[in-house]
Design brief:
With about 325 residues, the chain is α/β, with parallel strands linked by helices. It contains 15 helices and 12 strands. α2 crosses α7 and α3 packs parallel to α7.
């Protein structure tokens, strides 16, 4: 078993790594805030926007790098794409054997290399120069082949690697990753990317469930349990039974939702010749409603937190019912 001394050494190493990488991120923040990287970052963001977000722009961000920088480049490409900026990773070795064809003159290239001298990047760098493709370098050296060839270079501030040998990419890759996140978020905000846009690009998983709208899961048209104010309760009961939502909405001649009839309303009027009465006599007027654009999670909270609680709610637009959502619809969709 691992002894107390070994455990203490593990924790010391972990804290040292996190402290050194945090110091690197603080240096990066200061360089962006007031240092020479500030103008370079804006220039890089402009190049990406021109390729992917301007009028008629059809380009992508091509991220590339070798080794650990390549892994970071893959993640940057994935983050950019997930927030609405088309991006893909191109392996520099494969680029030299035909994958340069994946890069077009409409694109912008982001190349990562801490040393700035990665030989595998040579063909991509030359290709960008030949076809005047914007090249954004993320590197730790100002005087390097990559930074010299780049349209704009984002130079990482000096920071020691967290590896005790000073060799394994640790602090440098953390700073690269954070800088990529910063570029992605800058593009997100420039584009006005919304939660609706996010849902379109994230149809699977818990995030999609959290972003579902009432309109995505509500019952529409003939599936809604609707009756008129003069309908006899004998007919209303048939509608409530057939639609199986435990309630009925009462709609006036102008199409507006006048009230709802629930199981509770039936119990309150059970002794007063219920089936002979009109829907307007039994309904609860001015019912609680929700917007179809509301999040499904909001509808779930609305139903469960109300007093008294209720199991379904009509979605209304301009006073007229456009859908009905039941508590079970939210739960079935994974909203909780």
């Amino acid at each position: 078993m691992t002894g107390d001394r070994e455990r203490s050494g593990d924790i010391d190493a972990a804290v040292r790594v996190l402290s050194m990488e945090a110091d690197g991120l603080r240096s990066l923040k200061e360089a962006l805030r007031a240092g020479p990287m500030s103008a370079a970052f804006v220039h890089a963001a402009d190049l990406i926007e021109a390729a992917t977000g301007g009028d008629g722009a059809t380009g992508r961000v091509i991220d590339t790098g070798m080794g650990k920088s390549g892994h970071v480049a893959r993640k940057i490409a994935a983050t950019l794409a997930s927030v609405g900026t088309p991006a893909q990773y191109v392996h520099p070795g494969e680029a030299s054997h035909g994958d340069l064809g994946m890069i077009t003159t409409r694109d912008a290239v982001v190349a990562l290399s801490n040393s700035g001298e990665t030989p595998e990047l040579t063909d991509i760098v030359s290709y960008c120069a030949r076809f005047e493709i914007p090249l954004i370098a993320i590197t730790g050296r100002d005087e390097s082949a990559l930074s010299d060839a780049a349209t704009v270079a984002l130079i990482l501030p000096p920071a020691p690697e967290a590896c005790p040998l000073g060799l394994a990419p640790t602090t440098s890759t953390t700073m690269m990753l954070a800088l990529g996140d910063a570029l992605a978020v800058a593009q997100l905000e420039r584009k006005g990317f919304t939660s609706d846009d996010f849902q379109v690009l994230h149809p699977g998983g818990k995030l999609a469930q959290r972003l579902l709208r009432v309109s995505d899961i509500m019952h529409k048209g003939e599936a809604m349990p609707l009756v008129g104010p003069e309908d006899r309760m004998s007919d209303v009961l048939i509608v409530m039974t057939a639609k199986r939502h435990g309630c009925a909405g009462v709609v006036g001649l102008d199409g507006s939702l006048m009230g709802v009839i629930t199981d509770g309303d039936l119990r309150r009027h059970m002794e007063n010749e219920l089936v002979e009465r009109s829907a307007a006599d039994v309904m609860t007027p001015n019912p609680k409603t929700i917007r179809p654009e509301a999040l499904a999670a909001e509808a779930l909270a609305f139903m469960t937190n109300s007093r008294p609680r209720f199991n379904g709610v009509f979605a209304v637009r301009d006073g007229a019912p456009v859908g009905f959502v039941h508590l079970h619809d939210c739960l079935a969709a994974g909203v909780a």
